[in-house]
Amino acid sequence: MGNKPELELFDNPFPQRDYCITVRCPEFTSVCPRTGQPDFGQIIIEYCPDKLCIELKSLKFYMQSYRNRGIFYEALTNEILDDLCGACKPRWMKVTAKFMARGGMTTDVVAEYKANS
Known about the structure:
Layout: E1 9-11, E2 21-31, E3 38-48, E4 52-54, H1 56-64, H2 73-88, E5 92-102, E6 105-114
Antiparallel strand pairs: 1-4, 2-3, 3-5, 5-6
């Protein structure tokens, strides 16, 4: 994951069961690569863990690593999905990025992963 903080993981306490974990990051910020202006939004991570779960403090630091980074919404949503799936190898994961209005328009980007698909 390059210079991004390492994601810490812990053993899923119920690996025999499918269940959903939802994490909301309501104060997400990144930077528009065209204008250099900040982008504000919410990132919602939903996943069904397999053997490992994502530790939240390390996830917070990971999300903060985007704060000064110039990246388009579509790229960051898919990059977050790839990084998180690569780390914890879930059964299923969906990352939704919901950005605040800019120029009178809002943007939501959704990327999803399914194991064995």
